[in-house]
Amino acid sequence: MRQLIKHDFKESWLEMVIANACILGGLILLGAFFRIMFSIDISSESALPVIYSYVCILFPFIIFAGIVLAFISIVKNLYQKLVGNQAYIVYSLPVSTDALLLTKILVTTIWIFSIILSFLLGLLFLILILGDFRSQIEVLSNLADLLFSNFGAFIGYLVTIFVNIILLITQILLTLAILNTGTIRKAKVIIGLLIFEAIGYAMQIVKILPNTFSFGFGTNGEWTTFNSFGVSTILLSFLSVVNGTLYCFNIPVFLVNVGFIILFYFLTRYIINKKMELE
Amino acid sequence: MNNQNINEENSIIEIKSLTKFYGKFKALDQVDLSFPKGKIIGLLGPNGSGKTTLIKIITGLLKQYQGEILIDGKQIGIDTKKIVSYLPDRNCLPDNWTVEKALTYFKTFFPDFEYDKAKNLISQLGIDLSKKFKEFSKGTKEKLQLSLVLSRNAKIYVFDEPIAGVDPAARDLIFNLILNNYHRDSTIIICTHLISEVEEILDYAIFLNRGKVYLREYVDKIKESSGKSLNEVFKEVYRCAPIN
Fold it and tell me: How large is the ipTM?
């Protein structure tokens, strides 16, 4: 499995480094640009408003391109290795299905975390560049104090993000496994997207109940409950506008998500072991 | 001619009552087969006869079937993948890989892979190790994949249409590569519909048609009893047999 992980990292590092550089660099450059522009009187230079408009579009575009590149790179890698021609060699390797799936989950999780980290770091630099350095440091120090005083809430957020990332990856893996059952022979990409969406909607329906009877830890680490049950609440839950309570760690939703991860993983494993029909 | 004298001790692959459906289409129909050990076996038949389906089941790429398959006495799984070296009917190595990277990949994941042997084979073909797969023609990619597959010290080599889509000169080269580089106590299964091209190198022939075994016999015996070449027998068989 160690070799599989090493290989998967080597296969995808270049695209992911470029994507991370686009996000981090784009945010830093955007901050630097605004900083320069704020110190110049735009109205005195006729060409500056035009440059200003272009750059205002360019940097967010670079950031967006980085996010898209990361997403495409992750999905393309998984698709090629599990459904495309490369699958012929991947499934001929003398390795277990578990090793194969766990490697994909681990490597993809790390890459997605790196993207989130780059985005947050970029935002941090943007704030530091834009404002008065001393006052920004003070703001950040207060933020850090707040974070550590509600360390439980911070961990709750991290766990929630982590679980959601793994859920997304297992959802993609299940979709790709279904594409390999031999029932879909044409327009695999489009049908794959539809299957992915269908799984997502099915999850939302199942999540109505846990969203309705929510309890867990709030943003300040306090114990929070919300359990008013009614048609309107169900409808709101379905539309993902859950309720007024802001959770950093919603226990029923967390448990349901973990349940989905386990279900998707074992379904994917079962399909690969028992139902695979590589074309 | 539909007989064979392979007992279980002499066989490397045992197939019993193998049936495979694609929807309502029966691709393999109650196939019973034994593949003799240490021989070059031709899995022959026209397009759609079930050759590739059988190969994919043996290599573990198709999982939905009825019947039983034992490879070297084991059910299909990690253990059988360790002893089967498989050349698919398509290029399965990514175009952005260099030859060197493909060599490293095989060395990493197949413990029986002989790196130096592969490097020598590829050098003999005059291929630059630093070049990427996308820079090569279809024939060269075919030869490269074949070199990698042959450099495994496997008990069974499975070649799915190794000569389809390459020119006659390249076909000779491919056969020479196979004959000069496989391990003598290993079994080779060549799946093809180009009988005249493989006739000379085969020890044993299995004719498939519409998912059924039409004929299985040592090539010498087929020639001896029919007084014809394998290609002529093939043409005769498939002229009489209903083809899909």
Answer: 0.82
